[in-house]
Amino acid sequence: MKDLRLIMGMPIIVEVADPAVSQFDVDDIFDYFDYVDHKFSTYKDDSEVSLLNAGKLSPEEYSDDLRLVLTLAAVTKQETNGFFDIYHQGKCDPSGIVKGWSIFNAAKLLEQKGFKNFYVDAGGDIQANGLNPDGVPWRVGIRHPFQQSAVVKVLAISNLGVATSGTYLRGQHIYNPREPDEPLTDIVSLTVIGPDVYEADRMATAAFAMGRAGLKFIAGLTGLEGYQIDKGGQATMTEGFEKFCV
């Protein structure tokens, strides 16, 4: 069973290859993404993040999930030497960590339902477990940053996460906290494969903010592989990335 809906301002795909899946099971996953959107959106005036940014929410009033996300963001900032930072111009935007975190949680919900073969894709960041309906690892395409109808690589993954950070779709929405007013132009796309989508997503965001140093950062992390494309179209990958390519 496969379904697609627009939530959190992006297409979300849930596909479950296990035969016992029902529409009710898939609806539960989309309901969870709706919950995340209403809590963490920076575009909804009544979201918890918007209330926080408006000064209408004290720390004592934070929900458990908001408190957890803020903690995870602080830990990620420390682990990336400050290159991951959810605060910009005095406002909190946790989307850089919420996206991967919510996909990871959605996958856990499917696991709790007893499913082993599924794929959750939110805006191109993916958790793929088990095998696809054809009985082989899930196929994930990396979009060509200069020809958006084309792919530059196809990956075969199982029980792993994939996340891509870039400026080719959404423009300059990622920034270097050390030089927040300088646009990131050297790298246009950086894809990370990790043990799960949460790890892949947060580290892809931080590495992209590092510019050309980002791929070396990914190469130094255990269990992560990376593939980056620069503004001239030159692609570079970490040593173990090629083994995932079809």
Question: How does this model look, in words?
Answer:
The protein has helices at 23-40, 48-53, 64-79, 95-112, 197-209, 214-219; strands at residues 2-7, 10-16, 87-88, 91-92, 118-122, 125-129, 138-143, 151-157, 160-166, 187-194, 225-230, 235-237. The chain has one domain: T-fold, CATH 3.10.520.10. The protein is built from 6 helices and 12 strands. The chain is α+β, with helices and mostly antiparallel strands.
Topology:
Blueprint: E1 2-7, E2 10-16, H1 23-40, H2 48-53, H3 64-79, E3 87-88, E4 91-92, H4 95-112, E5 118-122, E6 125-129, E7 138-143, E8 151-157, E9 160-166, E10 187-194, H5 197-209, H6 214-219, E11 225-230, E12 235-237
Antiparallel strand pairs: 1-2, 2-5, 3-4, 5-6, 6-9, 7-8, 9-10, 10-11, 11-12
Helix pairs in contact: 1-4, 4-5
CATH C-level: Alpha Beta
**CATH superfamily, please?**
ApbE-like domains
Q: Cα-atom Rg, whole angstroms?
A: 18 Å
Strand content: 25-35%
Helix content: 25-40%
Strand order of the largest sheet: 1-2-5-6-9-10-11-12
Principal-axis shape:
globular
